[in-house]
Amino acid sequence: MSWRRWLAMGEVELSCLAYVKMYLHACLFPRCSVNGLLLSSSPAGGAVCVTDCVPLLHTHLPLAPITQLALTQVDVWCAQTQQRIVGYYQANACVSDSSPTPCALKIADKIAEQCNNAVLLMIDGGKMSPDYRVPPIVMYERKDTRWTLKDKHTIMLRQWEETRDIASQLLDSGDHSLLVDFDSHLDDITRDWTNQKLNAKIAELASPANGNV
Amino acid sequence: VNVLIIVFTEMRDKLRKWREDNHRNSEQIVDVGEELINEHASKLGDDIWIIYEQVMIAALDCSRDDLAWTCLQELKKQFPGSQRVKRLAGMRLEALEKYEDASKQYDSILQDDPTNTAARKRKISILKAQGKSAEAIRELNEYLEQFVGDQEAWHELSELYINEHDYGKAAFCLEELMMTNPHNHLYCEQYAEVKYTQGGLENLELSRKYFAQALKLNNGNMRALFGLYMSASHIAASPKVNATVKKANVKYAAWATNQINRAYQVTKTNQLPVEELLLRSS
């Protein structure tokens, strides 16, 4: 039976690709708050499978113009690549505070307008060191217009240890600097915010040939 | 032997350039600086002291307390009782999250020298690190009453206000910065972004003007270009503007679209046509 069939309603699966890029985004800008969008290539209905993410900003998260621009561009790209925006992630600069900021809630609300089981994911900066045994993330879901903490047991990360190791490997090798967020793209428009290069590197590390299933 | 000398001077010059440009590329500084200190200390002459300081700060950034400690000890030996070294000791305490001790360190500097701006700013940084934004904002305002020309402080304050969603006050800080730095395209562009965020027709028109100004100062500023497109489009689409204003803004938006397309064509990236954006934002 396929993995997908095991997931019931209300559960969220986070792919290796999405997790690794989010994690690296936070590592690349340790002194800034960073955010991004969570995408899914699975059809709507049933469990939410986050299959990819697009890192957006590391400066001025609360300001509107670049956020609006990025949302529009990602929306169009998703339509072209059969993906949907299913959520939002953020890592706060202040490591001791992993609660969603007003702008996080605002953007998540906007996403929820189009996707009724949208997720809001906060990266817990205090738990990001490699020896942490669980993913340093906290998820929120929308219940009656309010974002409430999601039960940890309904967040699935297949092969967490392998995923964690891939993220560490890329950090150690310095390859995390390959990651391009939308902010960086605006600084130099030759840089690709869809991160094809980094995606390929992650896929390589995750492939069966490397001993990963 | 000659090759080693070349390598040494290259390393020393790199560090100097990063110092002068105030780069925070801490990992590189630690890499280059540590080697320089360990292998070539004797050749550095008096430069070594400023290098110790530079490397120490970078080491703190990279959680290299061992290296930071070594540098600090050398500086303490050479400059006993120095306020500047005291401040570095304070920064190390901050890095170790010993905020009370760090604050005491800065207080003792300020007791001897109440005008020591570095110590005051470090105290504000501690408030920021602890998430005490309201206090940080209050202290920074007080600081700026005394040191009204401190650009860095004005910019820091604008950032703090933006994070608190107090856009009016953020705009005020950026106005100060634009007044004293009229050729800085980044301040214009940030001001425009704040105005756009505040919303409403008047603010949108202001934002469009300042995006345009930023472009005049630097026509490569993509944020300003996109900002001009978006603000002009929104104004043109507003039911509150008359036909003349509408027409003018349609023109601005069209010009911006053109420029954006050209910019992306030059880079040969498969970027989405801006016409798509036009469809979406209206």
Could you outline the blueprint of secondary structure elements for this entry?
The complex is a heterodimer of chains A (213) and B (282).
Chain A: H1 3-6, E1 12-14, H2 16-28, E2 34-40, E3 48-50, E4 52-57, H3 64-80, E5 84-91, H4 102-114, E6 119-123, E7 137-143, E8 146-149, E9 155-157, H5 160-172, H6 182-187, H7 196-206
Parallel strand pairs in A: 1-3, 1-9, 5-6
Antiparallel strand pairs in A: 2-4, 2-5, 6-7, 7-8
Helix pairs in contact in A: 2-5, 2-7
Chain B: H1 2-20, H2 26-40, H3 47-61, H4 65-78, H5 83-95, H6 99-112, H7 117-129, H8 133-146, H9 151-163, H10 167-180, H11 185-198, H12 201-217, H13 222-237, H14 243-267, H15 274-281
Subcellular location (chain B): Endoplasmic reticulum membrane
Subunit structure (chain B): Component of the ER membrane protein complex (EMC).
Function (chain B): Part of the endoplasmic reticulum membrane protein complex (EMC) that enables the energy-independent insertion into endoplasmic reticulum membranes of newly synthesized membrane proteins.
